[in-house]
Amino acid sequence: MNTVMTVKKGVVLAMALSAMMLSSAHALTVYTAGPGSLAKSLASGFEQQTGVKVTVFQATTGKVMARLEAEQANPQADVLISASWDTAEDLHQRGWLLPFASANADQVPANLKSADYIAQGVSALGIVWNSKSGTPEPKEWRDLTQPAFKDKVTTPDPGALRRVAGFADRAAKQHGRPGLATV
Question: What is the pTM of this model?
């Protein structure tokens, strides 16, 4: 519960700082790939604390990124709450982020923050294997390239989920495109 409250406080602080940066803070637009119920709760709490109206666009990371790209010439988002480290790094590389200093930054490991963004959570990526599948137990990702796994491996669409695209890019760099294609 403390972690959730710390995250909420950090996000609310980010929203407050963004609101102060607006010339006339009548509204704040937040784009998020995070859970819709959490975004609504944060927006409601922020509105109650500041009186500033919050408009939330919540969608998959792919849809949020597509919207950001479409609005590149006339950005509409004041705050982005991403569900993907790769998204933050991509936006950082493009120069689309403003510096941000969280009041809780000292509690976050150095490898999970930069001058422009800070991780609000960490998730693990793993292999789920059905022990009744008739396939050998995979011990590492490369095991999935073996013939026993042909046509038996599934993954979310990298075009729809940015974190899957990031994983695919890292796997291709580590194992090469032919290895990735066999999975």
Answer: 0.60
